Request: fold
Amino acid sequence: MKKKVLSLLLTAAMAMGIMAGCGSATSGGDTKSSSKSASSDEAKSDDGGSGSLTIGFSQVGAESDWRTANTESMKSTFSTDNGYTLIFDDAQQKQENQITAIRNFIQQDVDYIVLAPVTESGWDTVLQEAKDAGIPVIIVDRMVKVSDDSLFTAWVGSDFKAEGNKACEWLKQYADAKGIKQSDINIVDIQGTIGASAQIGRTEGLNEAVKANGWNLVAQQTGEFTQAKGQEVMESILKQNDNINVVYCENDNEAFGAIDALEAAGKKVGGDIANGEVMVMSFDSTNAGLTDVKDGKITLDTECNPLHGPRVEEIIKKLEAGEDVDHLQYVDEAMFANDDTVKSVEATNSNNEKTTYDVTVVTDDVISGRAY
Amino acid sequence: MKKLKLSKTGFLLLITIVMFAVMYIAGMIIFNDKGFAKPQMFLNLFISNAGLIVIACGLTIVMITGGIDISVGSVTALVCMSAADVMENKGMSAGFALCLSLIIGLAFGIVQGYLVTYLKIQPFIITLAGMFFGRGLTAVISTEMISIKNKTFLAWANEKMYMPFGYTNRHGVLIHAYIYPTVVIALVVVVLIQIMLKFTKFGRALYALGGNEQSAVMMGLNVKSTKMKAYVLDGFLAGLGGFLFCLNSCAGFVEQAKGLEMDAISAAVIGGTLLSGGVGTVVGTLFGVLIKGTIQSLITTQGTLSSWWVRIVLSIMLCFFIVLQAIIGGAGLRNKAKEKVKGLAKATT
Reply:
């Protein structure tokens, strides 16, 4: 009997010990954050209250280099040195985690919520809560589908349609410059994951160009944005068709797979279509992608810019100054080519505006400047 | 003597509650400037986890019988997807979607319960199959995300029930704390199941069965029917919980609720349910869910720690509770289960 009581007491003591451990761990974290908030308070008083904004950022996860670059861009833009307090939450690919995080941001009374949504839908309830609390929400990267567009203040992301248009316009001019007839272009489209907004925009751009320029679209199949699937699809297409001279890959990983498949089939990969080479076009412009551009394996790589931080900051500064902001904002995206056959292209974006885009020739400097 | 033994289950529960209280109060003190002390922050624990609470209650029931159900996450995804699909693509009403959700849950419960009970297959394997089946079927319905725009459904999802208290935010707006109907449903489920476990013959039979199946059979309990009922009830609660989950996310998606079954199991264990069966309360499970929510909340509020720390802290908690159960549980708790069997035998004679 006594022993039992004693053991109970012991466990209770143990429980307390562990909890105390937890408590001190969290309080350890806190001293950091409280000292931070103290310093940001100072910053506030220093520049008369215009500094120190608290930003809650809910990120999808860390699934790709692109995503990591996106996170880093936010973290470096909204750093303490720049007068911000960033509360960062990694949702681990789960929408429910993001909903919880946004609710948490609302309770913390952050000044702005930045959301890179895992999914396009399911945000009505929680965004309404943010709106009720008077906190502006800025969406980055993927778009959200909500019943009422006023639930978010602005969206920042890539114009996938313009990316497709740009790449196709480049191909058209390239063919003209090289004296290749448009009708001689036999193009294969290795699509991204069907339904992803990047796939939809890039495929749309190509389909329109095929119609307008009279290219032959030999095959159109999904490579699911992966290298393995890209290779598999390319292999099977090569078995059925021998006349391919352009491969339009909807991201860099697919392009790597397609290049492997082409080389394994004895094709020469490059921009010299007239002499039997197969041209590979790609999107994203990751470090590895640009390396292939420099080596001539990929002839054109259209950028998908993950550096959203500065653009979001611009929006926040405008909102702080009481100015109106555009509801949809596209980030600037460059084009990278192996040579300077085409120096610039003019293409329409999703707002139906014609813009001129310069084509950058890839050098070692360009590659070393690319972190992701 | 009896009083002391009884307090052992109570003791596990008490530890869970105290742990939750200590964590939460510590959070309130430490993160007071970040709004952790606001009443809404507390209510958000329930709002975000309403579905999980109900699902974990169902899981607690099968765990008390000594079983397990790891299909609940997939059932949730299937329920969300089916509900979204019938409302958005088939033009059905929200009421129909709710019924369908419950039927899906029941169907899983009946099939899995039958296989476990009458064919004596390991529940882990059966529900593993159920987990794959549910996720697969979800993908067959649609691999794309379906957003729910049904007006009745959204009205249910967005119906705020305001509390008489609240706080004034920086913009000078008094914001009443609120909950959604999902929270009320979840709490009602917890109360009902707790009453059922404690005061009904079926409830006591569940403990007896989990404590020692052999003696339960010898006491003349209808073990098979009890076990079957446990799985059916678990399936039903998974369906209901899935629907509550759907009310929170307002969408159907293949990747939804991945790993939810593990969250539910850990909540039950932290709440004092023994994996070997015979011991557990749904009130404990409720606090288990709240502890998980609090850890998540603390780490999000802290703002610089990686959110993977939630898992790490949770794993430490799990270990702690299992060790705790082993120390104070052991023979004592099993004795208690045996006693229950005896008590039941007395009651039936």
